[in-house]
Each structure stands twice: as structure tokens, then as C-alpha cells.
Specification:
With 417 residues, the chain is of the alpha/beta class. It contains twelve helices and twelve strands. Strands 1, 4, 5, 6, 7, 8, 9, 10, 11 and 12 form a ten-stranded mixed beta sheet that branches. Strands 2-3 form a two-stranded antiparallel ribbon. Helix 6 packs across helix 7 and helix 11 packs parallel to helix 12.
Length: 417
């Protein structure tokens, strides 16, 4: 999980340059992925709490919006289990979220909520923390991985308006349009509590944003409201930051945007996916409700305790025996919801030079076991707080990642309307 602050961080989800025209959105564009300024304000939030599993820790991001501080992605012991398929067959057959999409040339469909009926969206957050401009970072990353990107992931917070003119231009590139995935934290550094936001404290801000979206961007896009909330929860009475307060805040923001005319936002509930947080007694109370959530997402990272894809998406730990793993949990809890791996990265292992290569190979081999995963986004950075997550630090890693990115299952056919 990576929380990055400042406006302009862009994560690009790649989908081959297939003319992506989903409700006005189409496939591949030229550049956009946040380059990442240097600094990290709020580093170590998750890790700071008793060394618990948190994230890769993309803590700050100097001028970039949204990703507030997520530290310690470290953790995540994953004794992964293949499968965790509870409910996945039914979900796949029913095509979670289908309703109003068009049919592509291969017979696959993209639903009203941007769920591809076959395959999964592929993504990358390119060259984060390098200082490169988004378009340049994406151009370089696409060249490195050997394929174009189709979904751009950006972060915003506070009173920033989105999509920005640059984001709109990227989404509408005539050479290949893109879907946007936007993470928005309505309050900067929690200056307003979740309870206050749910009570209407930021309604003017929400209404201003809604008017901006309606006026400037009719295309469908993914929207997450305050992603990875687990390490911000405070169950202290009166704190206004309980799990129930988060759910109320999320509901209020989404419903207020809809009331303001924003009917094109496909909503994503993004969790850390870490066993220690998921085992908290309040964890289930975070969920805002099916009527305001279209996708469920996790942000897992692979360190020395995670050896393969199964362990990544179904992290479990012996000290939290009741947690079944995130993918398995979503199958039991949300059998009809598509799953997004919204941020994932593999840290450099100097004791195992071939670690990234073997890990990327395991992802490709394991995809078939997780049919409800409908989007994968890689976090590519030479200076992530807990290590180097670039996918091409060795020739073997680059080759394996390229083979994964080129897998036909990660190139769903997208309709033109």
C-alpha cells in the first residue's frame, strides 16, 4: 500500500493500445504517470504502529496529491494459499458488475462498472519518486515493459479539482484514450475527521468538485475515497475516526457526488489487505455498503516473507489465525464484486538476485487461480521507502515481467462504445 501526497501522482494501468472506448473512454495514451517528487511527508504510519504490517510505505510524495503516508508495507507475512476461491466461480459466471457495457471484437464485454468479462486490466505506476514528469515517466515505463498503458491512476486531496486539464488530455489522447483511476482524500492530513465529513463539514468542497466533474469530464472513471483507511482508524469514543465513521464518510461523499450529477464514477473500496489490520475487531465495519461500492481492492507488497503470487493476494499469518487471506475473504464477503490489486510491488532481494524474476513468473502462472481479480497495477519505483520495486533491475526480471505484461489474459478486448 502506498500513500502518496501531493497532486499529480499518476499510476497507469495498462491495457494494451486497444481502442478503449468505454463510455467515452478508450484505450492507450501517451503518458502519464506520476513521476514522483522526492520527499515523503508522513512516513511510516502503518509501520509506526507496533511494527504491524502496512505498506511498501510510499509515504509522502512531496507535491503529489493524495497518498498520505503509508509506511511500513513491510510485513505481510504471506503464507499464501492457492485458490481462496470462495464464490469465485459464481462471480465469474455472473460477470460482476455487468450491466450496460458493450461487446468487443473477441466477444468479451466491459460492463457499466468497467469490469471486463474476460481477462483483467493490467497496470503500472511508473518511475515513482524519480522527479520525472508524468508523461515522460509513463513513456519510459511503457518502453521498458514492452506495452502501452490504458488506465491512469492519480491521487488528489483536499480541495484539489480533478480530473485536471492534464489528466483530461491524457484520458482523451486521440492516439489511445485512457480510463482514470482517482484516489481522493477529502481532508488534508485528516484536518477534518471522518465523522465531520459525514456530517456535512466539507459539503461545499464536494459540491464544487461535482460541478467541476460534470462540466469537464463525462467519461467513466474509477474513484476511491480515502484509500487504505485501516491505519487511520481510532476507536476512541468521540474521536470521529472510527471504522463506522469511515463507512459513513465514504457513503456521504459518494452519495453527495451523485446528487451533484456525478453518475460516471465507478467506486472502489481500497484496503491494505494486511492480516494484522484485517484481524481488528472493527475491520468489517469499514465497508460502506454495496450501493456505494462497485469494486473491492487491496494494496499488497512482496518482501522477504512473501514468495509468490498466492502469498501476495492471500496473505495470512500464524499470529492471526482467523484471517483467511484477502482474496479468499472477498470471495466469502463480496462474491459478486470484482477485485482490484490496486498497488503491488516486489522489493529487491540482494540475497536472492533472481527473486523478482521468479515472483513475476509466479504471477503469470497463478492468474488462472484468481478469476475475480479484474485489475492489476504494479508500483514501479527505484526509491520506494522500503526498497527498490523496479521491475527490470535484472535481465531475468525484465524478461519475466515483459512476459507477464504481454499475457493475452491481461489484454481484454474493449468495446468502442
Amino acid at each position: 500500500m502506498v500513500k502518496i501526497g501531493g497532486s499529480g501522482l499518476v499510476l497507469a494501468l495498462g491495457l494494451g493500445c486497444v481502442a478503449l472506448a468505454v463510455a467515452g473512454v478508450s484505450g492507450c495514451k501517451g503518458a502519464a504517470c506520476a513521476a514522483g517528487a522526492a520527499g515523503s511527508d508522513t512516513a511510516g504510519a502503518a509501520g509506526a504502529r507496533s511494527g504491524q504490517d502496512g505498506h511498501s510505505g510510499q509515504s509522502g510524495h512531496s507535491g503529489q496529491s493524495g497518498h498520505s503516508g503509508h509506511s511500513g508495507q513491510g510485513g505481510h507475512d504471506g503464507h499464501g494459499e492457492r485458490g481462496g476461491q470462495s464464490g469465485s466461480g459464481a462471480a465469474e459466471a455472473a460477470d460482476p458488475g455487468t450491466g450496460g457495457g458493450g461487446r468487443g471484437r473477441t466477444g468479451c464485454e466491459v460492463s457499466r462498472t468497467l469490469v471486463p468479462s474476460c481477462g483483467a486490466w493490467w497496470g503500472v505506476a511508473p518511475e515513482i519518486f524519480t522527479g520525472r514528469r508524468p508523461e515522460r515517466a509513463l513513456e519510459r515505463a511503457e518502453r521498458r515493459m514492452g506495452r502501452p498503458a490504458a488506465v491512469m491512476h492519480v491521487y488528489h486531496r483536499g480541495d484539489e479539482l480533478f480530473p485536471t486539464s492534464a489528466e483530461r488530455a491524457i484520458a482523451r489522447d486521440p492516439d489511445g484514450r485512457r480510463l482514470l483511476l482517482v484516489n481522493w482524500k477529502p481532508s488534508v492530513d485528516n484536518s477534518h475527521t471522518w465523522a465531520e465529513i459525514a456530517g456535512g463539514a466539507l459539503d461545499a468542497r464536494i459540491d464544487r468538485l461535482a460541478a467541476h466533474i460534470v462540466r469537464t469530464f463525462p467519461e467513466r472513471f474509477f474513484l476511491t475515497v480515502h484509500h487504505e483507511p485501516e491505519n487511520d482508524v481510532l476507536e476512541t469514543p468521540g474521536a470521529g475516526m472510527s471504522a463506522a465513521d469511515y463507512a459513513a464518510m465514504f457513503r456521504h461523499v459518494v452519495r453527495r457526488l451523485r446528487a451533484g450529477g456525478v453518475t460516471n464514477a465507478v467506486t472502489v473500496m481500497t484496503y491494505m489487505g494486511a492480516p494484522n489490520w484485517a484481524s481488528k475487531p472493527w475491520f468489517e465495519r469499514l465497508y460502506p455498503g454495496d450501493d456505494v461500492v462497485d469494486w473491492v481492492a487491496m494494496d499488497p507488497y512482496a518482501d522477504r516473507r512473501v514468495d509468490g503470487f498466492d502469498a501476495l493476494v492471500n496473505k495470512i499469518r500464524p499470529d492471526f489465525p482467523r484471517w483467511p487471506g484477502f482474496y479468499r475473504w472477498t470471495g466469502e464477503r463480496f462474491p459478486g464484486k470484482p477485485v482490484m490489486v490496486a498497488e503491488w510491488g516486489v522489493f529487491e532481494r540482494h540475497d536472492r538476485p533472481g527473486f523478482k524474476e521468479s515472483f513475476f513468473t509466479s504471477v503469470r502462472a497463478g492468474l488462472r487461480d484468481y478469476p475475480r481479480i479484474k485489475a492489476l497495477v504494479y508500483f514501479d519505483s527505484p526509491r520506494a521507502p522500503r526498497g527498490d520495486t523496479r521491475f527490470d533491475t535484472t535481465p531475468g526480471a525484465r524478461r519475466a515481467f515483459g512476459e507477464l505484461a504481454g499475457d493475452p489474459r491481461l489484454r481484454p478486448a474493449v468495446p468502442s462504445g
